[in-house]
From TrEMBL:
Biased composition regions of type Pro residues, renumbered to the chain: 498-511
Annotated stretches, region: Disordered: 489-512, 680-718
Protein name (database record): DUF4132 domain-containing protein
Organism: Actinomadura rugatobispora
Length: 971
């Protein structure tokens, strides 16, 4: 029997295959069924002895260990007439094997792949030229594997001369710009994206993508280098404590001085109020600390980029100006001996390090080149001092210090003209850009115009003042520089100091390709093509960004990713379960297409494709991921029921990142575990719900006993009238005066009495996610509505009630009617039904309600202050519980406060409640939390690790959580 090998090859006559076995002699295969599909084998003469086969199998083991199982498919010479191979069933194609083998063997070992023409054909196809081969040899010899990988993948869409350009590409610092995946997977994605593009322009797009990914990796490398210049241990808490004690000592010194240097009594201290000179000194220290921290930060960046001598020379004017400002600091107070002793180690204020650096630079024997460690040691705390200064500014602008307003305004009006003459403005934020004063500057300066307007008008006040807060922006920009950014950006939520020094990536459109790797960017673009992007628009698309923008514009991504999946009950019961034998990997089930989009964007696969979404929406499969303990997805799974369904489930597809083969042991254990999941008992489900199980037809579906085609069910004609009547009744019952008013306010109806509710709903349906969130924020901020009003409005689902009252026989006959209550795109027949004038208002209200919930969920995770104010002003149990579950599951990057300790199920407050009470408010909140966007499968895992948590701003007022919960319970 001749063995079938991978990539359509059949073993030659007289050849046998040996399979490695751990700790035993290799096994000679009698047939293909004796080994797993795609297994690595050693091919050799059928009459070879055990010693020869053993040596070849040992060499095969070395090859697989160093290059992965894919390398075995390249036909590598194992010695003694043996070559490596893979059995039929392996993923990918020949180029995957050749690239993997070459990375292991290098240019010197390439001869083990056989004739040069042979493996070059495997890489680039039969049209490969000598020049392409020479370019490939140079790339291999120089270790430019990313260029080789991309060229092999792009050989399907590029010509020989274009491939030479790709093979000449270099990555910054030797970074792996491909970052995972097989060439064949990248090739398939490139074909989807670039085949509609004219041939000459394909190379232009690929080179642009390479440049973008290179820039991203260069930025990451610089950011890592900048942050590595800072101390390994975070000392921010220590500095905050020291600075607090420093200020306390000064305050107590003023108090003792006023009382005649004696120790005050508690009553005297309580009655005492600091005078102006204390407040002005405190404000002067805050300003100078911000300027000193800015000087340290900018010097740290310059030294990291240019070395100690040049970096210090570039920042010398700023450092010296800072020391002069510190020398003139008003209301200075001498340190007592006790405070000097307590302040040993890191100084409480950054100006001390600035003085030391300038003193070393300008001393009797200026030393710039010699004591590099001296400078680096002091600059290593620039980040912590900058963070502390930002916290102090935030505290001032939040009015935590309770500075008397007259003193604050007097300080804010002081001129900074001399300071700017010495240090100038940064390149990213000059006075001409200060056209709109921050809200906090308006508070400090009163009704004064922004700085840019004053400078343009001229006059006595045509100068920068402290209250303009440009120095605060300088501090935040300097912090941003140390994190690799050009400047700080506006914060997403209100609050001092209004700038974010290390902004994360903006929320991208779902499936918008990232630029952290070529493979991921191309995979994301291929996803967009699958969602309807098709041919890139216009003839002038010359950059990858323009191509992606065109695909995003044409593909109805947002609509395609709405709605919930019909999750089979046996799979839903295991959501969040740890799979035995997988090292703690946790099974997570996708409940919406948006979850699939997140997985696809990270994994670089097609799990968010329309075919998968359609099957999962109809409940014909379960789509899942296995999360490792590091929080990253290890594999994606498609689970489908066996036939009949009562038999259980099996894994239809399983793939690691970029559609790579999963670890063999992991795959085996997952398949075994899935085999134990119980099946779906339709008969039992029908009995439990009181429904009769329809009899099994004796003729094929669509055929009558006489052989004539049965009449096709007509959705509009048969179900439309009854559903329309029920929908109108459900609408009238539920859309009372209060929700009608809330809808009109949210839709910004100028005359609610004259505008129909359906027109208002249509206006809201046309809003994108960001615009709808902004509309919610605006009505909450103006107090036109409370969060409780929005929650009530978003929970009105008249079409669900109408479907519940529909004849069960019609529901059974038209099983797709349930899709009307979700947010997923509707098939054609349902779209026509949803446009029926009797059904349309009820359908639109349900759809807008789901989108409202998602918008509220995003605002809460962003820590939006308008939501916080509304929630705490008029709390209600249903939204409070659902939002708390949402925050606990998602663990957003805002400050959180514990409500209950880790592992606890009893929630403090009156009335009493428990998380595990199936009849309590917390269980009732889970559906609402899922509509907010929560992955409730993570709830118990989060509770066990961190406890029940809420945004800290919710419980910052008096009484904390118990008071908030008690007020909610009274409604």
């Amino acid at each position: 029997m001749r063995l079938r090998l991978a990539y359509g090859v059949v073993a030659e006559p007289g050849t046998a295959a040996w399979l490695p076995r751990p700790r035993t002699e290799p096994v000679r295969l009698a047939g293909e069924g004796d080994a797993p599909p795609g297994a690595a084998v050693a091919l050799g003469p059928a009459g070879a002895g055990g010693a020869e086969a053993g040596a070849a199998v040992a060499e095969l083991g070395v090859l697989v260990r160093d290059g992965g199982i894919a390398a075995a498919g390249a036909g590598v010479d194992l010695g003694g007439g043996f070559r490596s191979a893979r059995l039929a069933g392996a993923r990918g194609d020949q180029r995957d094997a050749v690239v993997a083998a070459l990375r292991t063997l290098g240019v010197d070992g390439a001869g083990r792949l056989g004739e040069r023409t042979g493996f070059l054909t495997g890489l680039f196809g039969p049209a490969v030229t000598r020049r392409v081969g020479a370019a490939a040899a140079r790339a291999i010899g120089e270790g430019r594997w990313a260029a080789l990988h991309l060229a092999a993948a792009a050989s399907d869409v590029l010509g020989p001369e274009q491939l030479e350009r790709v093979l000449a590409l270099e990555a910054p610092g030797g970074a792996d710009l491909i970052a995972g995946g097989r060439p064949s997977v990248l090739a398939a994605d490139l074909r989807r994206v670039l085949e509609p593009v004219p041939g000459p322009r394909r190379l232009e797009l690929l080179l642009d993508l390479w440049e973008r990914v290179s820039e991203h990796h260069a930025w990451l490398a610089r950011r890592e280098r900048l942050l590595a210049s800072q101390g390994r241990r975070d000392r921010l808490d220590d500095l905050r404590d020291r600075r607090g004690r420093y200020e306390d000592d000064i305050l107590l010194s003023y108090l003792r001085a006023q009382l005649g240097a004696r120790e005050p009594t508690l009553a005297e201290a309580a009655r005492w109020q600091p005078e102006m000179h204390y407040w002005m000194g405190m404000l002067a220290r805050l300003l100078n600390d911000a300027r000193a921290a800015t000087a340290l930060l900018r010097t740290a960046v310059a030294v990291s980029d240019h070395g100690v001598p040049e970096g210090l020379a570039r920042r010398a004017p700023l450092l010296r100006a800072t020391v002069r400002a510190l020398d003139r600091e008003e209301y200075r107070f001498p340190l007592s001996r006790e405070r000097k002793k307590r302040a040993a180690g890191l100084p409480a204020r950054p100006g001390a390090y600035v003085r030391e650096i300038v003193g070393k630079m300008d001393g009797p024997k200026p030393e710039v080149d010699g004591p590099a460690p001296y400078y680096r040691q002091r600059l290593a705390r620039a980040l912590n001092y900058g963070q502390l200064a930002a916290k102090m500014v935030e505290s001032l602008l939040d009015d935590d210090h309770r500075v008397p307003e007259d003193y604050l305004r007097h300080w804010a009006s002081r001129s900074l003209r001399e300071w700017r003459e010495n240090v100038g403005y940064s390149a990213v934020r000059g006075p001409a850009d200060w056209t709109e004063a921050p809200r906090f500057a308006e508070y400090l300066l009163g009704t004064r115009e922004p700085l840019a307007e004053r400078l343009e008008r001229g006059g006595d006040d045509a100068q920068e003042e402290v209250g303009d807060l440009v120095w605060c922006a300088d501090l935040m920009d300097a912090l941003a520089n140390l994190h690799g950014h050009d400047a700080a950006t506006m914060r997403r939520q209100d609050g001092p100091p209004w700038l974010d020094p290390d902004p994360g990536p903006e929320d991208p459109a779902p499936l918008a390709p990232a630029y952290d790797s070529v493979a991921r960017a191309v995979s994301g673009a291929a996803q967009l093509v699958a969602f309807g992007g098709g041919r890139p628009p216009g003839k002038g698309v010359r950059t990858w960004e323009a191509l992606v923008a065109g695909l995003l514009a044409e593909a109805e991504i947002d609509e395609a990713l709405r709605g919930e999946f019909a999750v089979p009950a046996p799979l839903a019961a295991l959501d969040g379960t740890v799979v035995p034998g997988t090292g703690g990997a946790r099974f997570r089930l996708a409940r919406s297409a948006r979850t699939l989009a997140e997985w696809a964007n990270y994994m670089g696969n097609c799990i968010a494709g329309p075919d998968y979404v359609e099957k999962a929406t109809a409940g014909r499969c379960g789509l899942a991921a296995l999360y490792g303990e590091d929080g990253h997805v290890r594999v994606n799974l498609e689970l489908v029921p066996l036939r009949p369904e009562l038999r259980g489930w099996h894994v239809s597809e399983m793939a690691a990142r970029f559609n790579d083969d999963p670890d063999e042991d992991l795959a085996r254990r997952v398949r075994e575990w899935v085999g134990t999941i119980p099946g779906v008992d339709r008969a039992a489900n029908g009995a439990a719900t009181g429904e009769e199980t329809p009899p099994t037809p004796l003729t094929p579906p669509g055929r009558s006993g006489s052989g004539r085609r049965a009449p096709r069910p007509r959705l509009l004609q048969d179900a439309g009238p009854a559903l329309g009547e029920l929908a109108v009744k459900a609408w009238d019952d539920r859309m009372t005066a209060e929700p009608s008013h809330a809808l009109a306010v949210l839709a910004s109806a100028e005359d609610p009495a004259s505008e129909e509710a359906f027109a208002q709903l249509t206006r809201l349906r046309r809003l994108g996610p960001a615009s709808l969130a902004a509309a919610c924020r605006n009505v909450l901020d103006r107090r036109d509505l409370d969060l409780a009003d929005l929650w009530t409005l978003s929970g009105i689902r008249p079409l669900e009630a109408a479907l519940g009252g529909l004849d069960p026989a019609l529901r059974e006959r038209f099983g797709q009617l349930g899709l009307l209550t979700g947010a997923a795109p509707l098939p054609g027949s349902l779209r026509r039904l949803a446009r029926d004038p009797r059904v349309a208002p009820a359908y639109s209200l349900g759809l807008v309600g789901l989108r409202l919930r998602a918008a509220i969920g995003r605002l809460v995770l962003d820590g939006d202050p308008a939501v916080t104010r509304s929630l705490t002003r008029r709390p209600a149990v249903p939204p409070l519980c659902a939002l708390t579950v949402h925050v606990t599951c998602e663990a957003p990057a805002i400050e959180l406060a514990p409500v209950a300790p880790p592992g606890a199920v009893t929630v403090p407050g009156f009335p009493a409640s428990a998380l595990d009470d199936e009849d309590g408010p917390w269980h009732a909140a889970f559906p609402g939390a899922r509509e907010l966007g929560a992955d409730t499968g993570e709830f118990w895992n989060r509770v066990s690790r961190h406890g029940l948590r809420v945004p800290a701003a919710w419980v910052a007022g008096g009484g904390g959580w118990p008071a908030l919960w008690s007020r909610a319970g009274r409604r």
